């Protein structure tokens, strides 16, 4: 009787053991793998989305800061002398950009005799006028500048934080008998003067 | 008694002879006067041709930075003042010629210079004849057609460049003095009353000679025109018929159509005065013309127009096409006209051009004339108090439309966004300030000032005040 009970218990235990093992193995392993896979997939998806989002943000940022799209074609020099009181600006910028052109002049009433080698200080400049140009669908803009005799400072601002404004110094010297000639000077010196 | 009779007969003979002599002398000057009265014939052919062959635009390049473009030469008369010099060049045997490459010519274009732009290519021989050159030099063979004439006005010796767009022939003649032209050029520069332009080639690097104004300072006159034919009474219409046939109305057959158009017929020649304002004349060929001659054909046309339509101020030769009718060879000549110095674009679907003539040397086969007369309303001759848009403003306003037209004409399937301003500007052949005649009213029809943009196959007229497309047609 005891033998039968023991055999029954053993068989029962083995059945139980075998069945539980197989169940446990199947369920748990698959579940773990699936879970991992899902988690991995979710993580990957999230990562991809994040990467995409990041790249989107990056590209947006890139677009915003693509300063090559904001350019002055003319004048090519940042400081030069002309005889006439008229000069011109041509440039390109993305559609709907507001380009602000500020023109500052100086008078030589103080007899400081400014020229390209002796530029006025910030206090010596007087605002002549400011103009806003809305860039049209062609992505180009142009402006005829009415200047004053002496040193004129032109500041072209694209109204974008990432895009630096451009400064041009034009010396209107009607007494200059020769045709408009540029004063050649070291770029570094020029940059220093403009910064000051 | 016999003696008395003899004396009486003698006195009678003297009286009769005096009477006849008087009639003779009274009539001869009358006849001469009548020739002048017909009038327009007294103008020489070269005079008529020189009026018909005139530039459309005048580019003054003071230096690389300051340049301007004129459409109306009435103020400075640069063409009139250059005609004699150009005539001398075209008749001179002491000239030196050099072919310039495209690059060389582009470099010279940046120097102080004056450029005459013709509306279409002009035959150089015809140009020489229009400038009253009796014996044209070898230039007419070296370069057969001229589109632009360039005159260098910088330091040193001046020279000329005749170009047809592909070939640029520089002509030097040290004996020619153009100091007067240089002085005038410098005076215009000093005056400063002009619009400043910039070159799209230099600014955007495109391979086209398109010039764009920075600002449009000047305003344009308001012009009203009227349909001359509709407003003519019967008597005036008959006078026109008598002029065309050179016969009294008693010999001319007159038919009035139901729509009030009138047809006159005389000896196989037909004249129709249409109610829509057109005059049509037809005279079938009487013999075969086997060899066409452009100069003879142009002279015949000029004389015909001057005799019948009178000298129409501002008329210019716009197109020359070779035609064939059965075995005869001839030309179809198109003339257009300018009002206050600006070309007029007709918005009439039935009539595209001002004058169209089919001419076979000395024979006018057909003639069609659309008369729209400037009524010169001096009281109302006010200029519009609105700012004129520049040609770049027009491009900006109509950019999407122009890009669409570019893609359509070039059969490109790219997206609109991929098209750049350089491509759009290269697509344009020409931009000119003009008047558009909508041809809507017979009386006091107001002309619309427009920027006319021409591409390879189309013509677009945009309103200079608001940029709206007023008219479009195939070229």
Summarize the structure.
Chain A is α+β, with helices and mostly antiparallel strands and 196 residues long. Chain A has two helices and eight strands; from the N terminus they run αββββββββα.
Describe this entry's structure for a reader.
The complex is a heterodimer of chains A (196) and B (475). Chain A is of the alpha+beta class and 196 residues long. The radius of gyration of chain A is 38 Å and the shape is rod-shaped. The C terminus of chain A is likely disordered. Chain B has three domains: 149 residues; 151 residues, YycH protein, domain 2 (TATA-Binding Protein, 2-Layer Sandwich); 84 residues, no CATH class. In chain B, 31% of the residues lie in helices and 31% in strands. In chain B, strands 11, 12, 13, 14, 15, 16, 17, 18, 19, 21, 23, 24 and 25 form a 13-stranded mixed β-sheet that branches. In chain B, a hairpin with a 4-residue loop joins strand 13 and strand 14. In chain B, helix 2 packs across helix 5. The interface between A and B is medium-sized, with 19 and 20 residues.
Q: How would a crystallographer describe the biggest sheet of chain A?
A: 5 strands, mixed
User: How many domains, in number, for the residues of chain B?
Assistant: 3
- Specify the structural class of chain B: alpha+beta
**Class of the largest domain in chain A, according to the CATH hierarchy?**
Mainly Beta
Distance from N terminus to C terminus of chain A (CA atoms, Å) equals 111 Å
Secondary-structure arrangement, i.e. CATH architecture of the largest domain in chain B: 2-Layer Sandwich
Assigned CATH superfamily of the largest domain in chain A = Immunoglobulins
Number of discrete helical segments of chain A: 2
């Amino acid at each position: 009787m005891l033998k039968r009970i023991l055999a029954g218990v053993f068989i029962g235990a083995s059945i139980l053991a075998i069945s539980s093992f197989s169940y446990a193995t199947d369920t748990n392993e698959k579940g773990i793998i699936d879970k991992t896979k899902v988690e991995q997939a979710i993580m990957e998806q999230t990562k991809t989305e994040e990467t995409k989002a990041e790249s989107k943000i990056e590209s947006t940022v890139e677009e915003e800061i693509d300063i090559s799209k904001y350019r002055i074609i003319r004048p090519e020099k940042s400081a030069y002398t002309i005889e006439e009181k008229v000069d011109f600006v041509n440039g390109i910028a993305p559609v709907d950009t507001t380009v602000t052109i500020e023109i500052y002049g100086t008078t030589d009433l103080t007899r400081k005799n400014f020229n390209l080698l002796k530029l006025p200080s910030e206090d010596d400049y007087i605002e002549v006028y400011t103009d806003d140009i809305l860039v049209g669908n062609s992505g180009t803009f142009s402006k005829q500048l009415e200047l004053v005799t002496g040193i004129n400072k032109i500041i072209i601002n694209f109204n974008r934080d990432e895009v630096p404004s451009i400064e041009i110094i034009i010396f209107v010297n009607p007494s200059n008998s020769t045709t408009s000639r540029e004063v050649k000077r070291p770029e570094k010196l020029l940059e220093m003067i403009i910064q000051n | 008694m016999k003696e008395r009779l003899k004396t009486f007969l003698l006195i009678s003979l003297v009286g009769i002879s005096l009477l006849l002599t008087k009639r003779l002398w009274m009539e001869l000057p009358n006849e001469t006067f009548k020739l002048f009265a017909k009038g327009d014939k007294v103008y020489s052919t070269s005079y008529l041709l020189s009026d018909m062959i005139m530039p459309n635009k005048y580019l003054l390049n003071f230096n690389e930075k300051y340049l301007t473009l004129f459409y109306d030469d009435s103020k400075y008369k640069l063409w009139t003042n250059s005609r004699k010099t150009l005539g001398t060049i075209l008749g001179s045997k002491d000239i030196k010629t050099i072919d310039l490459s495209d690059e060389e010519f582009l470099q010279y274009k940046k120097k102080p210079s004056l450029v005459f732009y013709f509306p279409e290519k002009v035959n150089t021989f015809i140009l020489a004849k229009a400038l009253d050159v009796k014996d044209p030099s070898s230039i007419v063979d070296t370069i057969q057609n001229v589109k632009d004439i360039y005159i260098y006005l910088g330091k040193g010796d001046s020279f000329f460049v005749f170009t047809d767009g592909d070939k640029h022939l520089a002509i030097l003649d040290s004996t020619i003095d153009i100091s007067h032209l240089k002085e005038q050029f410098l005076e215009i520069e000093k005056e400063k009353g002009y619009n400043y332009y910039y070159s799209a080639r230099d600014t955007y690097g495109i391979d086209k000679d398109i010039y764009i104004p920075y600002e449009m300072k000047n305003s344009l006159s308001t012009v009203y025109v009227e349909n001359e034919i509709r407003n003519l009474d019967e008597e005036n219409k008959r006078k026109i018929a008598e002029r065309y046939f050179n016969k009294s109305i008693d010999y001319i057959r007159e038919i009035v159509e139901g729509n009030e158009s009138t047809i006159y017929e005389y000896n196989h020649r037909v004249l129709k005065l249409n109610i829509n304002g057109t005059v049509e004349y037809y005279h079938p060929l009487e013999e075969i013309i086997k060899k066409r001659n452009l100069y003879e054909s142009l002279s015949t046309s000029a004389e015909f127009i001057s005799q019948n339509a009178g000298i129409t101020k501002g008329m210019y030769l716009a197109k020359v096409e070779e035609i064939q009718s059965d075995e005869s060879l001839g030309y179809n000549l198109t003339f257009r006209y300018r009002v206050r110095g600006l070309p007029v674009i007709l918005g009439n679907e039935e009539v595209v051009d001002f004058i169209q003539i089919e001419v076979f040397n000395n024979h006018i086969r057909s003639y069609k004339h659309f008369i729209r007369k400037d009524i010169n309303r001096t009281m109302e001759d006010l200029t519009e108090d609105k700012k004129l848009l520049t040609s770049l403003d027009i491009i900006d306003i109509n950019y999407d439309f122009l890009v669409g037209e570019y893609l359509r004409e070039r059969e490109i399937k790219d997206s609109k966004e991929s098209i750049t301003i350089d491509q759009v500007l290269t697509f344009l052949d020409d931009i000119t300030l003009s008047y558009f005649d909508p041809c809507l009213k017979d009386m006091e029809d107001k002309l619309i000032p427009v920027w006319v943009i021409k591409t390879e196959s189309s013509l677009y007229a945009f309103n200079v005040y608001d940029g709206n497309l007023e008219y479009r047609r195939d070229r």
